[in-house]
Specification:
Blueprint (H helix, E strand, L loop, with lengths): L5 H12 L4 H8 L3 H8 L2 H21 L4 H23 L15 E8 L2 E9 L1 H17 L20 H9 L15
Antiparallel strand pairs: 1-2
Helix pairs in contact: 1-2, 1-4, 2-3, 5-6
């Protein structure tokens, strides 16, 4: 336990949480901003703040989004909710006659003319599709199922390169110094 006063302890917690400005912290604990600045220069106060920061970080690692299982649970919940939106939209009888309306991927947007709704436009909900794909991609990364793929090809002579590739090599300023032709030449 620290030898800080009750106000100092409360201030140390608020400083460690790092959500409020010094002015807000000082007001919350009932001291002047100048007093808080003085405390923040005291070794005992600094040590206590550092200790609280370590405690908060450990708690976040145990319970928060820093845990892979928690991140995956949140991603799963988000994925389920996005699918729920799509399913409920697919069941909307007002979209049943619209091409693609029963897929749940169509949205109805009002078209206004001079501030009055003149009709509706039906479009594919690319935003929801994009978010669904992003959630799936993030989950795949978390699980180690997604790896970046790189294309490699054998280059035996300069004839194997396109004009754009040759120009890029020349523009790099070092000519062919790093070009490995695969037969011991460079």
């Amino acid at each position: 336990m620290s030898n800080l006063t009750g106000r100092q302890e409360k201030a140390a917690v608020l400083v460690a949480e790092d959500y409020r400005s010094d002015e807000q912290i000082a007001a919350k604990v009932g001291v002047s901003k100048r007093t808080l600045a003085f405390w923040k220069r005291q070794p005992q106060f600094v040590e206590r703040v550092d200790g609280i920061v370590r405690e908060l970080a450990a708690m976040a690692r145990r319970r928060g989004i820093a845990r892979r299982e928690r991140r995956l649970a949140v991603l799963q919940e988000t994925h389920n909710r996005l699918l729920q939106v799509i399913e409920e939209r697919a069941a909307d009888p007002t979209l049943a006659e619209i091409p693609g309306g029963t897929t749940g991927l169509i949205v109805r947007k009002p078209v206004t003319s001079m501030g009055v709704v003149a009709g509706y436009e039906y479009t594919v909900d690319t935003g929801t599709i994009r978010e669904l794909r992003a959630v799936q991609e993030q989950a795949a990364k978390e699980l180690g199922h997604l790896a970046e793929r790189h294309e490699y090809r054998a280059i035996r002579t300069l004839k194997d390169l396109s004009d754009e590739e040759l120009e890029a090599i020349l523009a790099s300023g070092d000519g062919t110094s790093e070009l490995n032709l695969g037969d011991g030449q460079s």
